[in-house]
Design goal:
globular, disulfide bond, redox-active center, alpha/beta, Thioredoxin, electron transport
Length: 109
């Protein structure tokens, strides 16, 4: 399920769009069959729009991109992982309210 305003990344584009990005990138590891992922869609769309000055938000479909999922040992969806300087700096699993999600990442943004 593609979120409006949130770019989709793939195994092929992950290094360029996430690891080589200049600023922090929040990656949602998601799947079409995941109800909590659908709950996160409007929250991530809001964050992508409201925090664009300091954060890029992307999503990766784990069913279509198993290499990246395996590389970061993502076992549960949704997993939100924040990358900075090509490295994962924080990861959270499960649906959250927008304010809570932003608080959990605030100190690493």
């Amino acid at each position: 399920m593609q979120i409006t305003g949130v770019a989709a990344v793939t195994d092929e584009t992950f290094a360029e769009q996430v690891l080589a990005a200049e600023g922090p990138v929040l990656v949602e590891f998601t799947a079409d069959w995941c109800p909590p992922c659908r709950m996160m869609a409007p929250i991530l769309a809001d964050i992508a729009r409201e925090e664009a000055h300091r954060l890029t938000v992307v999503q990766l479909d784990v069913d279509r991109n198993p290499e990246t999922q395996a590389a970061y040992a993502v076992l549960s969806m949704p997993t939100m992982m924040l990358f900075r300087g090509g490295e994962p700096v924080r990861s959270v699993v499960g649906a959250r309210a927008k304010a809570r999600l932003l608080r959990e990442f605030d100190d690493v943004l």
